[in-house]
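Predict the 3D structure for this chain.
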Amino acid sequence: MTRHKEVIGFVGLGNMGGPMCNHLVEAGYPVYVYDIDPDAQAAAVLAGALAADSASACASVADLFLTSLPRPDHVEEVMGGQHGALQSLRAGCIWVDLTTNRVELVRRLADEAPVDVQVLDSPVTGAVDGARNASLTLFVGGDSEAVNRVVPVLDNLGLVIPTGGLGSGNVVKLVTNQLWFIHAAALGEGLALGLANGVAIETLWRAIKESVGDSFVAHHDAPSIFAGHYDPSFSLDLCLKDLDLIDGLSASLASPLVLTSATKKLFDKAAEHYGRAAGELHVAKQIEDANNLSFRMDGDWTPPWEG
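Done. Predicted structure below.
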C-alpha cells in the first residue's frame, strides 16, 4: 500500500462518512477522525484511522480537511465561530465539504476562512452502497488549482466531476436530488396505476427498466419498495431538508417549478403520515396504502447498504 504524505482530517463518520473515511485509510493516507458518536469514531480507528479529541483538533493537523455531515446547521456548528474548526485550519490547507449544503453558507464560511486556506464544496451522490463500494459521484466546486490538488484523494471515493466555482457542487447535487425525488414519487404512481389495472408487479418492473420509463430509481430504489423497508438509510427528514434547499435555489427562476413543488407536497404528506424518520421511499408507500395495494415482490432483496 502506498503511503501518502498529505494528512487528512475527517469529521462526520455516519452512513456516508464512515465508509468514505475507510477508503482513504485503505488508500494509505494518514487520516485523523472525529465524530460526536464515540462508537462511530471507534469503528474508524479500528479500521486504521487516528483519533482526534475534537473537530478543531482534527482540523489543526490536516493538510486536507473533509466534513461529511447531515445538515447545513451541523456544518455551521462544527466549522463556524471563533472556536470552530475553520479557524483551526493551517495555511495551505484545503477544506472539502462533502455535505449537501446551502450554497450561501459554503461561500460565507469560505470568506471567513483563515488566510491561505481554500474551500471546496463536494457533495456526493450514490447512496450508502456507493460510499461502501467507492462508486460515488462527487461534484466539486471551487478554485481549479485546489480542485486539481484534491482530485487524487477524492478519486478513491468514486467519480469526480468538477462543476465550476465555489457553490456549484451543491447546485449540481441539488439538481440531481430534485430529479431523484420526482422519480421516486413517480415510480410509486406508476406501480399503483399498473397494479390497479391488472398488470403483475414483476412485469411492470421489467417493462419500466427496458423502456423510456427507466431511471436510477427503478434500478436502485425499487427493490427497497419490493422488500417493504423503503430504504431507512435515507430518511424523509433528509429528503425534506434537500427539498427546502432546492426551493431556495428556485428563487433564481422567474417561473415556478411545478413538478418539484408537487413532489415536495407528497414528501411532506408522507412525513406527516409515517414520521420524518421513515425511509425516503415512503413517498411511494403512501399511494400503495391509499389504494389498498401491495408492492411486495418475492426476491433476494439484499438492502443496498449491506450488499
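Residues 171-290 form a domain with the N-(1-d-carboxylethyl)-l-norvaline Dehydrogenase; domain 2 fold (CATH 1.10.1040.10).
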